[in-house]
Amino acid sequence: MTAFAVQNTSIETAEIKWELRSVNSRFLEMHFRLPEHCREIEPLLRERLRSRLSRGKVEVSLRTVEDLTTAALQVDDQLVSALLTAIAQVETQLPASTTLSPMELLRWPGVIKQQEPQNLSQAELLAGFDQALDALCAGREREGATLRTLLNQRLDAIAEILSALRDELPSILERQKTLLQERTARLVQDVDPARLEQEVALLLQKADVDEELDRLAVHLDEVRRILLTQEPMGRKLDFLMQELNREANTLSSKSVALFSTQAAIDIKVLIEQMREQIQNIE
């Protein structure tokens, strides 16, 4: 699932900013951008992510900046020298220009060095990370609730198609039986009526899709049941989408009427829509 979380924490000597991003992935992939002096906590971060997430590509970034109100300011002397040289060159061409004051010079980006705090404790860093992870999981849960609603809508649509097809199936088979008898009667002379009836029954049996409709209904019920659970369900739903698609393909191949062919196509479209959404589910 996709989600984004930011957690800013101010402590006595520094500002700590965590950013967590999550995008869709079949497996759990973790990528970290941490300051060198914080690399030692990466195994702990991985452990925390694995305990809360099972799928998704997660990017974790940490930025720590020393609090300038409590730390001695450090000026980038090289940058100041370069700025003064550039100012002198401009003054030769614009003698009437106003010289920059020291305060204006200090406001120039990069003149005051941003210091990386070196004495941050693991507890302080992990506390901010845990808060950011809580926010990320909350965002994923909100998206999951929306996806559950969308999936249930498509399950309802498939169930309606199956119901309509089941109601129409006897008429389809009866029309197919009549058509086969008429065609056979025109092609064959002196045919044994019993033998003809037997052959027609075999053909109609191959066209009967009651079993496929039953299996599709069972799979729909299983998807609904899984959606009500609180455990990771993405891989289970992936498998069920494959089974639903397999039954829909069989339904299409056994179709002997336009109505059932269109029903199979509509079902496959809805299954594909669900399959795409399920890639977002943990």
Structure description:
It comes from Nitrincola lacisaponensis. By secondary structure, the protein is α+β, with helices and mostly antiparallel strands. The chain has helices spanning 42-52, 77-93, 102-106, 122-187, 193-207, 210-227, 234-253, 258-278, and strands spanning 3-10, 14-23, 28-33, 56-66. The protein has a four-stranded mixed sheet, covered by helices on one side. α1 (42-52) packs across α4 (122-187), α4 runs antiparallel to α5 (193-207) and α6 (210-227) packs antiparallel against α7.
What's the helix and strand layout?
Layout: E1 3-10, E2 14-23, E3 28-33, H1 42-52, E4 56-66, H2 77-93, H3 102-106, H4 122-187, H5 193-207, H6 210-227, H7 234-253, H8 258-278
Parallel strand pairs: 3-4
Antiparallel strand pairs: 1-2, 2-4
Keywords: Endonuclease, Hydrolase, Nuclease
Family: Belongs to the YicC/YloC family.
Domain Endoribonuclease YicC-like C-terminal: 167-282
Characteristic terms for this protein:
282 residues; alpha+beta; 8 helices; Butyryl-CoA Dehydrogenase, subunit A, domain 3
Q: What fold name stands as the CATH topology of the largest domain?
A: Butyryl-CoA Dehydrogenase, subunit A, domain 3
What order do the strands of the largest sheet run in, or round the barrel if closed?
1-2-4-3
Could you describe the largest sheet, including whether it forms a barrel? 4 strands, mixed
Query: What's the overall geometry?
Result: elongated
What's the count of strands? 4
Number of helices: 8
Kindly estimate the percentage of residues that lie in beta strands according to DSSP: 5-15%
Highest-level CATH class of the largest domain:
Mainly Alpha
Distance from N terminus to C terminus (CA atoms, Å) equals: 7 Å
Number of domains: 3
What is the H/E string? EEEHEHHHHHHH
| Uncertain runs | none
